[in-house]
Amino acid sequence: MSPSADFDHLVIAVPNLADSVEQCHNALEVRPIPGGAHPGLGTANALLGLEVPTLGPGALSYLEILGPDPDQDPSLAAARLSGITTPTVQRWAIRPRDFDGLVAKAAAEGRVDLGEVHDMTRRTPDGGLLEWRLTRRTPLALGGIQPFLIDWKDSPHPAEQDMPSVELERLWAETSEVDRTRSVLRFLDATLEVEAGATDSLHAILKGPGGSWTL
Questions:
Q1: CA–CA distance, 105 with 113 (Å, rounded to integer)
Q2: CATH topology of domain 5-214
Q3: What percentage of the chain exceeds 70 in pLDDT?
Q4: What pLDDT digit, counting tens, does each position of 32-44 carry?
Q5: Which of 47 and 126 is assigned the larger pLDDT?
Q6: 184 vs 47, 103, 172, 189, 198, CA distance in Å?
Q7: Pair 99, 153: CB distance under 8 Å
Q8: What is the CA radius of gyration of the chain?
Q9: Which of 45, 35, 21 is nearest to 161 (CA)?
Q10: I need a labelling partner for 79 at 20 to 30 A (CA). Which of 139, 143, 156, 209 fits?
């Protein structure tokens, strides 16, 4: 049986977007492309295609480097990037085949708190408008280990655009509640390696033509 949710994207939160784009380029020899700004949220992003070996060729997934937008009020980004002093694997998204059905199931059963559904927009550098919806919780559930849900509605998926890509060599979580975390992931049909650790955290190894970047 095919999974009911696909890996969509991985979010690397950074304290300075321009500096982290250079850091990524220096480590991987691949330069992320400008993604665009999130109006009213104080953030902007840069993107890379993401090759996930377990998904096979042609899968739509990408890497988002998320940082403060210098053209917006710095206080707006403070909540989304609280505690971010170095590039950090902050969270990840899955794309359910039935977004509304999974949201309703989580609410009815009460086993997994997805937070609220929010409508989002972003202007692309060429002036296009992307519109999507996602689930959001504050603070992040399980320190970001619990993925948020995303639905791109009628917008083109960001991974469809022409951009360089890197390989997601490994993505894993560390948590002090291994059994509970695995139960949440099974409920969401989300595949993620989980290890015992002192705190809830996500980690990744990215591989490009110039080497690896471990976060």
A1: 11
A2: 2,3-Dihydroxybiphenyl 1,2-Dioxygenase; domain 1 (3.10.180)
A3: 97
A4: 999 988 888 999 9
A5: 47
A6: 28, 13, 15, 9, 19
A7: no
A8: 16
A9: 35
A10: 156
Q: Is the dihedral of CA 57, 151, 93, 121 positive or negative?
A: positive
What is residue 3's predicted lDDT score, i.e. its pLDDT? 57
Q: How many residues does the chain have?
A: 215
Read off the pTM: 0.93
Digit-coded pLDDT (tens) for 71-106: 999 999 988 898 999 999 999 999 999 999 999 999
pLDDT beyond 80 at 58 = no
Q: Is 115 exposed, middle or buried (0-12, 13-18, 19+ CB in 10 A)?
A: middle
Write the pLDDT tens digit of every residue in 41-54: 999 999 999 998 87
Q: How far is CA 130 from CA 29, 102, 118, 121, 127, in A?
A: 28, 23, 14, 5, 10
- Euclidean distance between CA atoms 165 and 57, whole angstroms: 12
The amino acid sitting at 159 is A
What pLDDT, on the 0 to 100 scale, is given for residue 153? 94
Could you give the residue ranges of the DSSP H alpha helices within 8-126?
A: 17-28, 74-78, 99-109
Please count the other Cβ atoms lying within 10 Å of the Cβ belonging to residue 74. Answer: 11
Q: In a 3-state reduction of DSSP, which class is residue 167?
A: strand
